[in-house]
Design goal:
single chain; mainly alpha; transmembrane; membrane; transmembrane helix
């Protein structure tokens, strides 16, 4: 049995992956599911909200990167 060394992962990378797995990916996948269910307005809104969360995250990370 081998173990994966996770000590080299930065906090920014951890938060990025966590945000991706917990918020952005479910929003986009639910949006695609709604599109297949012929609920176009709901599906498009979910996909747009996933993209908006990603955009807000990028803005926040660039602002915090400027101050460090």
């Amino acid at each position: 049995m081998t173990y994966v060394d996770t000590s080299d992962i930065s906090a920014q990378m951890f938060i990025t992956v966590l945000l991706l797995l917990l918020i952005i990916a479910p929003l986009v996948s639910l949006g695609v599911l709604r599109l297949f269910q012929s609920k176009k307005k709901s599906g498009i809104m979910l996909i747009i909200s996933g993209a908006a969360v990603y955009g807000v995250f990028q803005v926040v990370m660039s602002i915090t990167h400027m101050f460090t």
